[in-house]
Amino acid sequence: MPLVSELEGDRPLHGQREAVGISGGQQDFVPAVTMVVDGVALCRTVEATQRATEQPFSVPTGCDQRRAQAGVSSEQWCKPRCACSRADLPANPASPSAMGGCFSKPKPVEVKIEVVIPEKERSKEEMSPNGKASPLIYKVNGTARHYHLEEHPIASNPYHNPKDVVEASVCHVKDLENGQMREVDLGCGKALLIKENGEFHAVGHKCPHYGAPLVKGVLSKGRVRCPWHGACFNISTGDIEDFPGLDSLPRFQSMDSHPEQIALRPKEFFRSYDIEVLTEMQVAAVDVKNKTAVFKDGFKMEYNKLLIATGNTPKALSCKGKEVENVFNIRTPEDASRVVKLATSKNVVIVGASFLGMEVAAYLTERAHSVSVVELEEVPFKKFFGERVGRAVMKMFESNRVKFYMQTEVSELREQESKLKEVVLKSGKVLRADVCVVGIGAVPATGFLKQSGINIDSKGFIVVNKMMQTNVPGVFAAGDAVTFPLSLRNNKKVNVPHWQMAHMHGRVAALNMLAHGVELSTVPYLWTAMFGKSIRYAGHGEGFDDVVIQGDLDELKFVAFYTKSDEVVAVASMNYDPIVSKVAEVLAAGRTIRKRDVELFVRHGKTGDMSWLTGKGS
Question: What is the rounded distance in angstroms from the CA atom of residue 350 to the CA atom of residue 328?
């Protein structure tokens, strides 16, 4: 069963140029990957299914039309042939779908995957300076990039009209059971082979977000969920259905990255799709009656649909000396690069054991002379991960030379020659400091909307429904600045200021601005990485009243279930993949995980009842 992977290119959500977005960042579109069997999408896996079951076969609806368009008789269309040869079928240059399937009497066969290499790219192969063949060069959004097969999913080739094919026999059709995934070697790279409901699918083997091996992910109802960060991909088309992730493997560099290295889309992308991006401009007000965005300099822009995605503004210290130099709220790549440069071999104080504060602290330990963290709570992440997990994380940091000053706050920043010299705590302790990074939270950047008539709650968040609509017709909002109804918490209005949710907000808002009537139903999924270890988290644990832990916190190998009353509302893990993705799939299916189920699982260890994870429980 030859499979040809064909990337249909970047497909933005098309519509008239009548949508205006107000944003603190870039809005992104997602490509689609179509898997085609012998050029006939409707017959994608029928050949392998029929051969495996040895049942009579009838051509699906649509195949007769394709056969007629190709000028092929019924006998020729169903003629047995070798997967390596196309000489036995007449070609129709106008129709890439002229290649038929082999629907004759079943014989033992192997699953074959065809990898497309465009002729124009094969001609570009050159020798690199080190004497090795250069990797395939391809274009994404108008920018030439190098394509390393071991680092990118095989389905990321964006060209049409394949000119050459490389085949690889990877397994027998009976080698995989329904619901199984296998990473297969194609000789020139790898692919993920999947069997579900009797059909085979082949997609890229690594998540395009961060390169996670998808074979270790969770397969459920036609999609595979990344084991690391929870992105979901349709196994038939490769389309991304939950975030994070883009069309190519992103490079999420360390703190001293250059802005162009971590941009979600290059400038050429926006030019290609006629998207006007106005930078260094600020909207001062929105006139919903006249459908106009009013800029700070007086410029006005009319809209038919408006998306507000202004994000948050970081909180600043209010203590004495807050204006001294070398005190940072990290907001931009330039901020991060400057912190790294100034902190090298110096004394750093981090104010706030937030995600930002702790990640900065972890990154700087190998560069700075000393790193100290000041926090009001007793342990880091107490409200988010609970005291026991927070204490385990704190212990990991202490073993990496990070000093904590808990249950206190900053009373003064002292300077010498206008630059930071010392941080004075309310406890009386004085810390030497050359650089101070502040991560004490943020507030929604919505002050300009106070007189607009757009509904804002008491904390300043924009209130939206499941379609990301505000109370004003034609006005939508997304990202960190909104509260929205979360399905898995009985439509409780929540704010989830994390990467994956912002991606999904943007997608749902865009679809509804185009009148598609799509509702938000994703499960929040986030992660944080420190000292080479990642904590993964799914759900929404706000207000949890108990934590059930399986594993060893001291060894940093555990899974924590956050419960409210008798229901699991969130899960976190470290070195316990892919359980967080499994729980996310259960929650995404609308099923309830009971506290008693996970308590039995923990009590009996690996031999415990896991029906609640396999879809047979509540």
Answer: 10
Q: 36 is written with which tokens? A: 């085609």
How many separate helices (H) and strands (E) can be counted in the chain?
Answer: 14, 37
Measure the CA–CA gap between 484 and 465, rounded to whole angstroms: 6
Asked whether the beta carbons of 589 and 559 are under 8 A apart, the reply is: no
The values of phi and psi at residue 302, to 5°, are -85, 155
Give the strand order in the sheet containing 419-425.
Answer: 410-416, 419-425, 430-432
Alpha carbon distance 186, 168 (integer Å): 5
User: What is the SS3 assignment for 580?
Assistant: helix
Question: What DSSP state is assigned to residue 611?
Answer: H
Q: What is the CA radius of gyration of the chain?
A: 27
Rounded to an integer, what distance in angstroms lies between the CA atom of residue 171 and that of residue 189?
16
How far apart CA 383 and CA 391 sit, in angstroms, is 12
Residue-wise pLDDT for 366-395, tens only, equals 889 999 999 999 999 999 999 999 999 999
Cα–Cα distance, 112 to 170 (Å, whole number): 6
pLDDT in tens, 178-236: 889 998 877 667 888 888 877 788 888 888 877 889 999 999 888 899 998 888 888 88
C-alpha separations of 536 from 25, 217, 597 in Å:
24, 13, 21
Three-class secondary structure of residue 343 per DSSP = helix
Cα-to-chain-centroid distance, residue 422 = 40
- Contact of 606 with 550, CB cutoff 8 Å: no
DSSP state of 582: H
Question: DSSP of 152-178, one letter per residue?
Answer: S-GGG---SS---EEEEEEEETTSS-T
Maximum CA extent, the chain:
90
Please answer whether residues 492 and 513 qualify as being in contact, where contact means their C-beta atoms are separated by less than 8 angstroms.
no
**Whole-number pLDDT of residue 72:** 47
| Owner of token pair 């757009």 | 454
What three-state secondary structure class fits 117?
A: coil
State the amino acid at position 250 in one-letter form. Answer: P
Q: Of the candidates 182, 240, 251, 159, which has an alpha carbon nearest to the alpha carbon of residue 211?
A: 251
d(CA 612, CA 615): 6
Tokens of 245: 């992730």
Amino acid letter for position 220: S
Decide if 148 contacts 134 (C-beta within 8 A).
no
Is the pTM above the cut of 0.90?
A: no
Helix then strand then coil, in percent of the chain rounded to 5, is 20, 30, 45
SS (H, E, C) 598-609: HHHHHHHHHHCC
Under the banding of pLDDT at 50, 70 and 90, the label for residue 614 is low
> Which contiguous run of DSSP H or E holds residue 569?
strand 567-574
d(CA 251, CA 209) in angstroms, rounded, equals: 8
Q: Residue 383 in contact with residue 541, Cβ under 8 Å?
A: no
CA distance 327 to 435: 6
Token pair belonging to 530:
């420190």
Residues in the chain: 618
DSSP string, 58-76: -PPTTHHHHHHHHT--HHH
DSSP string computed for 483-522 = EEEEGGGTTEEE---SHHHHHHHHHHHHHHHTT------P
CA distance 215 to 469: 37
